[in-house]
Amino acid sequence: MADNTVQPITLNLIPGGRCIDFWVKQVQLVARPAEHPPFATEAVVLEEDTYLVLSAEAVVRQTDEHPIRLMTALFDQQPLEPGCVVVRGNRLLAVIHDLDRDPTCCEQWVSQALQACLKQADQLGVRSLTLPLLGSVHGRIPYSRCLVLIVEAVEEATFHALRRVWLVVPETQQMGVEQFLRLRAVTGSR
């Protein structure tokens, strides 16, 4: 039977830099800028759109496929459902943007994609994951709201493998994230 008691979030500042770590359930979340990874991870989550354009390589590759077949395949391509995740090796593509809409993403899609990414990572046996603040990389969702959605997704999930998550936080937002997490640790509020 699952223990549904709410455990307080503890916040630790690691000396020697702005590295914030806190625990939600049995998962350690570490907030750190991309330039200063706190640890090596086995997989990374990336923000993506319904046609997987955001993560597409900018390099045009030579192919033997006839151009008409390529154009037909592109024309027939159907958009993915916002909120889903696509696995490509060690990359989890969180589909949270629909470039035909304005704004391109919403909290509901971010929340669904976070839950799907965490579940998929755990099913793949991933023990450590790199996770940007989804919705803020290419979207307009405030960093503090992204953090709340991440914490809620971790609180709702059950994990067998996943133990550490590196939250990629822009260096310019590090102080704001630290203040937000301190407040959350003290109040225990969402």
Q: What's the topology here?
A:
Blueprint: E1 11-14, E2 19-24, E3 27-32, E4 43-49, H1 67-76, E5 85-88, E6 91-97, H2 107-123, E7 128-132, H3 143-156, E8 164-168, H4 174-187
Parallel strand pairs: 3-8, 4-6, 4-7, 7-8
Antiparallel strand pairs: 1-2, 2-3, 5-6
Helix pairs in contact: 2-3
E-strand count: 8
**Beta-strand content:** 15-25%
The largest sheet is: 8 strands, mixed
Structural class: alpha/beta
Helical amount among residues, as a percent range? 25-40%
Number of helices: 4
Which series of helices and strands comes N to C? EEEEHEEHEHEH
| Spatial order of the strands forming the largest sheet | 1-2-3-8-7-4-6-5
The low-confidence parts are none
Broad shape: elongated
| CA distance, first residue to last residue | 25 Å
What is the CA-based Rg, rounded?
Answer: 18 Å
Mean pLDDT: 86
